[in-house]
């Protein structure tokens, strides 16, 4: 960290109000239970409020209702409306101070094809490859061994981490972050059966990705078969996710690790998917739908809300019968209660 910091500096950075000693030194960010006097921590969840009585944190970001108790213990409070959002802002500000911006330019070991268009202050790392027709906006960073394919477009401030790969013709918006090992624009899983064999269907679309998208490590987003696979603004995909060809994901939807989305599914805006959730192909999921971890979505969902569902695997014929019975359990329960009531009178 460059230079000393105080609680007042932290408050100014996140738009908070200091209660107590604003000159208190801050040298690290830490959780309440592991903090010391030089730490800044935060309290966002009411269930963690008891930790305020025992934390050694010198500075805590919290709501107005919790400030007096902390200051009474000789600590410094930074009052905000939303502590978790303030903590997120603090981490970004902290990293910007701690990690110096790399020098712009092309490393001598990198390959940049003739005719590639590079914006101002672009950085291309060791052994990276940027192929013909690519366009990189200002302040783009391409990490070591990353591959930017033919005619790829990278918006201003996009970051392609080491060993990430972008296939030909893909478009990535501004401020996108593509983590190591992710593959954007590999061929979708398209094969035509013929006489017991599989014949490849060439994938002719690309991937279109909006602004402020983040793609986790080793996640794959396949190119479209004919039209593009689309990832709208602000989508966040965790590590080890599979997005198949021609999927459309609406703005600000988030998916946890190991989610799988089959081809041509259309997912709305502001949705969330827990880890290892599965979405079958050609389904439509509306806005503000939230799928629990390990659930399997087998039919379209248009009504906003929280959905869960796990069912044991079985021979398909048995599974269909059991699933049909399961859907009638609620009605059967009411009928059974009515019979029990009738027999008891």
Give the helices and strands, then pairings.
Blueprint: E1 5-6, H1 7-14, E2 17-19, E3 25-26, E4 28-29, E5 39-42, E6 59-62, H2 64-72, E7 76-79, H3 83-98, E8 105-106, E9 111-112, E10 117-118, E11 123-124, E12 129-130, E13 135-136, E14 141-142, E15 147-148, E16 153-154, E17 159-160, E18 165-166, E19 171-172, E20 177-178, E21 183-186, E22 191-194, E23 197-200, E24 207-209, E25 214-215, E26 220-222, E27 229-231, E28 236-237, E29 242-243, E30 248-249, E31 254-255, E32 260-261, E33 266-267, E34 272-273, E35 278-279, E36 284-285, E37 289-291, E38 296-297, E39 305-307, H4 316-327, H5 329-344
Parallel strand pairs: 4-5, 5-6, 6-7, 8-11, 9-12, 10-13, 11-14, 12-15, 13-16, 14-17, 15-18, 16-19, 17-20, 18-21, 19-24, 20-25, 21-26, 24-27, 25-28, 26-29, 27-30, 28-31, 29-32, 30-33, 31-34, 32-35, 33-36, 34-37, 35-38, 37-39
Antiparallel strand pairs: 1-3, 2-7, 22-23
CATH homologous superfamily designation of the largest domain: Hexapeptide repeat proteins
Which CATH C-level class of the largest domain is it?
Answer: Mainly Beta
How widely separated are the two ends?
Answer: 78 Å
Tell me which CATH architecture of the largest domain applies here: 3 Solenoid
Number of domains: 2
The CATH topology of the largest domain is UDP N-Acetylglucosamine Acyltransferase, domain 1
Q: Provide the low-confidence segments as ranges.
A: none
Number of strands: 39
C-alpha Rg (nearest Å): 26 Å
How would you sum up the global shape?
flat
Kindly estimate the percentage of residues that lie in beta strands according to DSSP.
25-35%
Please estimate the helix content.
10-25%
